[in-house]
From TrEMBL:
Alphabetized PANTHER family for the sequence: CBS DOMAIN-CONTAINING PROTEIN (PTHR43080:SF2), CBS DOMAIN-CONTAINING PROTEIN CBSX3, MITOCHONDRIAL (PTHR43080)
Coiled coil start-end: none
Acetylation found in the keyword field: no
UniProt keyword terms in alphabetical order: CBS domain
One of the Pfam families matching this protein, by short name: CBS
InterPro entries in UniProt: CBS_dom, CBS_dom_sf, Diverse_CBS-Domain
Top-level taxon: Bacteria
Gene3D superfamilies in UniProt: CBS-domain
CBS domain: residues covered: 86-146, 155-213
Ribonucleoprotein found in the keyword field: no
Protein's UniProt name: CBS domain-containing protein
């Protein structure tokens, strides 16, 4: 189950399938696009017929060797839910914090984004390094110049959140579809209880096998 929270409160609550009907999240402030330096095109030399045949044979042998190494019966573990992999020690910022303070919070905790709460401790958005850099001049990791901006001016809002029992495959789909690096986790009362990032999903896959994420 997913929900979308904005500055006026909950906007949507429903399934992943109905989520595309809602307008995508937008950033409050402009994002400075990276300047394109140039493209490098590498010439690809196609193999001859004999070379292709030889490569195909070698590839087939490699596949067979890999299959021989696999166990005959792979036991699938349970599908992981958000509450099994989410970060419970939350790092948040307030909407009325200045952007310099928000930047220090991200740097001190070595994170790339943080949920944004209003004065009533309700989730209203999310702010990332990319959002903050639109108003900061950072030199060697330290803030040198800063515009008089608040987190509410640059945060991404509304923000897509998920319930604790949402499976991680659906959360990963939201990250891809919405181009976000993390999804806040809220309970039935709308209280922020966790956060799932790209790293949390990847860590679950590589450190807790076997992991059943397919149906």
């Amino acid at each position: 189950m997913f929900a979308i929270y904005g500055t006026s409160g909950p906007i949507y609550q429903g399934t992943l399938e109905n989520l595309p009907r809602i307008s995508p999240v937008v950033r409050r402030g402009p994002v400075i696009a990276a300047r394109r330096i140039g493209d490098q095109i590498e010439e690809v030399v196609l193999p001859t017929d004999s070379g292709a045949t030889e490569a195909s044979a070698l590839g087939g042998q490699a596949v067979e060797a890999y299959k021989a190494m696999l166990p005959q019966n792979i036991e699938r573990g349970p599908l992981y839910h958000a509450n099994q992999i989410m970060q419970r020690q939350l790092v948040t910022v307030n909407a009325d914090d200045d952007v310099a303070r928000a930047w220090r919070v991200l740097v001190e905790h070595q994170i790339h984004q943080a949920p944004v709460l209003d004065s009533g401790q309700r989730l209203i958005g999310i702010v990332s390094e990319r959002d903050l850099l639109t108003t900061l001049n950072v030199d060697d990791g330290q803030v040198r110049d800063v515009l008089a901006r608040r987190v509410s001016d640059v945060m991404t809002t509304p923000v897509v959140a998920a319930s604790p029992v949402t499976d991680i495959r659906r959360i990963a789909r939201v990250m891809l579809d919405r181009d976000v690096e993390g999804v806040p986790i809220v309970n039935d009362a709308g209280t922020l209880v966790g956060f799932v990032s790209h790293s949390d999903i990847m860590r679950a896959i590589v450190t807790d096998p076997p992991l059943s994420i397919w149906r």
